[in-house]
């Protein structure tokens, strides 16, 4: 699959052929590593991308910088790329549509668009307008609508499932392709969400969460890990720097990838 159209068709299909495991990348090198490890697609992490480009996570990153990185990754790998674009890098629906169009033109096959806003969530109707604008601007793009009810602990615990389902229905009506519910890995809840959402369900996993096959059996179509890989990489850099500066030794770098192995990833 080499053309952008083919990769986008493939990315849609991957959500229907068993759980899609996505180790999130944050730059070209990490994307190439993820691809070389056997990933069927490359997903970016918005936080990792922002950190690598000198900004905090949370709609602070310049849109052009984010899109330029998406283009670099899409050009470097052969598999589909889906970009986490936070809440759309736009103050209003029109700007979100412009972002979606630009990301598609950069070669991405999908996007994540979250409904988080400040300390809470956007109004459902406002979020629908933002999703509609993205769909109209990029008709073929896989739009993964993120719902942060569980992640942010919105409302009473007993109400969160229905709140999430109500938002999922509204977002699908607005043109979303799939639904992303971070903050949930409990298998019973995943099963209930997957059974009641009429679209592929994406969950966010990490240490202590059920394995990919367990989440898949519960109904999750897509399992991603968010900032986990970037955080682990930066933790290694922190340990190695502290060791060098405090002890004058280098043992923390012992398990690093070899220069030749990394350099070879770029030769194509």
Structure description:
By secondary structure, this protein is of the alpha/beta class. The protein is built from eleven helices and ten strands. It has helices at 4-14, 28-36, 46-52, 63-76, 93-105, 124-137, 160-173, 187-196, 212-217, 228-246, 259-264; strands spanning 20-22, 42-43, 81-84, 110-114, 116-117, 120-121, 142-146, 178-180, 201-204, 222-224. The strands form two sheets. Strands 1-10-9-8-7-4-3-2 form an eight-stranded parallel beta sheet, sandwiched between helices. It has a two-stranded antiparallel ribbon with strand order 5-6. Helix 9 links the parallel strand 9 and strand 10 (222-224). The longest helix is centred in the C-terminal third of the chain and has 19 residues, at 228-246. The radius of gyration is 19 Å and the shape is globular. The two termini are 16 Å apart. The mean pLDDT is 96. GO terms for molecular function: lyase activity. InterPro entries: ICL/PEPM, Pyrv/PenolPyrv_kinase-like_dom, Pyrv_kinase-like_dom_sf. Keywords: Lyase. It comes from Lentzea sokolovensis.
Topology of this protein?
Layout: H1 4-14, E1 20-22, H2 28-36, E2 42-43, H3 46-52, H4 63-76, E3 81-84, H5 93-105, E4 110-114, E5 116-117, E6 120-121, H6 124-137, E7 142-146, H7 160-173, E8 178-180, H8 187-196, E9 201-204, H9 212-217, E10 222-224, H10 228-246, H11 259-264
Parallel strand pairs: 1-10, 2-3, 3-4, 4-7, 7-8, 8-9, 9-10
Antiparallel strand pairs: 5-6
Helix pairs in contact: 4-5, 5-6, 6-7
């Amino acid at each position: 699959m080499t053309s952008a159209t083919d990769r986008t068709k493939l990315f849609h299909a991957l959500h229907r052929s068993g759980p899609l495991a996505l180790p999130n990348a944050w730059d070209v090198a990490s994307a190439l590593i993820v691809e070389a490890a056997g990933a069927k697609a490359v997903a970016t992490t918005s936080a990792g991308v922002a950190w690598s480009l000198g900004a905090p996570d949370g709609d602070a990153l310049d849109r052009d910088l984010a899109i330029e990185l998406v283009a670099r990754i899409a050009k470097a790998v052969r598999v589909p790329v889906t970009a986490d674009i936070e809440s759309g890098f736009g103050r209003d629906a029109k700007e979100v549509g412009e972002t979606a169009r630009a990301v598609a033109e950069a070669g991405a096959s999908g996007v994540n668009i979250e409904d988080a806003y400040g300390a809470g969530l956007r109004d459902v109707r406002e979020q629908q307008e933002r999703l509609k604008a993205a769909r109209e601007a990029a008709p073929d793009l896989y739009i993964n609508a993120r719902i942060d009810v569980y992640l942010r602990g919105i409302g009473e615990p007993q109400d969160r499932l229905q709140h999430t389902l109500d938002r999922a229905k509204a977002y699908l009506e607005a043109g979303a392709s799939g639904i992303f519910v971070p903050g949930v890995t409990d298998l019973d809840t995943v099963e209930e969400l997957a059974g009641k959402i009429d679209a592929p369900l994406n969950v966010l996993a990490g240490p202590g969460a059920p394995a990919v096959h367990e989440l898949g059996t519960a109904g999750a179509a897509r399992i991603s890990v968010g900032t986990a890989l970037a955080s682990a990489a930066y933790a290694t850099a922190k340990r190695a720097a502290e060791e060098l500066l405090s002890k004058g030794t280098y043992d923390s770098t012992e398990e690093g990838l070899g220069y030749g192995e990394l350099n070879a990833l770029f030769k194509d």
